[in-house]
Amino acid sequence: MNDQTSNPEGNLNRPVNRNKNTNILFLIATLLLLGTGIYLFAENASKTKLANRLTTEVAESEDRYKDLDSKYNDALAEIDSYKGKNAALDSVLAVKERYILGLKADLESNKKKFRLSEADYKRQLSNLNLAISNMNAQLDSVQRQNRILLVANDSLGRNLTEKINENTLLTSTNNTLSQKVTVASLLLPQNIDLSGIRTKSNGKQKDTEKAKKADQLKLCFEVPENHVADPGMKTLFIRIINPQGVPLAIQDRGSGVFTTVESGQESQYTTVANVDYKQQRDNVCVNWSQGTPFESGKYVAEIYQDGYLVGKKEYELK
To answer: E strands within 175-281?
Structure first.
């Protein structure tokens, strides 16, 4: 009798312990649900952010494509507006039109990949602007020559051709035809790249933007397919101009002088690229080392063929 009534508190603690265990389980379940909710929310936010970024990149790529395509069409329309006015003009225009159509084809190729990066956009825009600049310079030169002929004709007061004898006329015609063929056969470089090179102790080379680490400058470009140009060895003169505006040149390393068509004067070149041309696309690279450190600043590489400036690229060493 005394044993049954001696511990009433023990019987009362059992429901309390069960309630405590229930509360703990409820708390754990609540924390698990809360953690799952936070994880799902974070994952959904990450996917939404990724989708928004991809959408933005696609939209930017499409805008770049539309801008370049519009500029190419404008350039081609400008070329069409000059056609038929002069044989020498038509020769220059044919070369530039073929080059711009090649750039436009590269753009279409990039569009098929569904992505046109900012770097590709800037590269193609630079190539287009260079082509237009060169074309305008050559057109101005031809038109300036035509104006000189017109002024001379007016000053004589009669048709200029009546004063030219047959031999002079034939010589002039031959020179014009020769100039036409020369301009049309030029190899206009594409995808021009100028970079600093660092040579490691094991002989391996690596690109660098640091002037103090660079021991070479490397110029690479692609010569196009041009069936007007005869196959065989082609000599391209390379001028690399330092940040002070002075061409890099060391006679013992192949530097020299050549005559430009535009000025008719001698200009110093840094080195040459000899191309065994086979009327098809080919990659060409030229390295220049000078034995002394390169200074920091902007370098300009110019490519000349037969006295004509056919390509240009800028690069900055920091």
So the answer is: 190-199, 205-208, 216-223, 232-241, 256-259, 266-269, 271-277
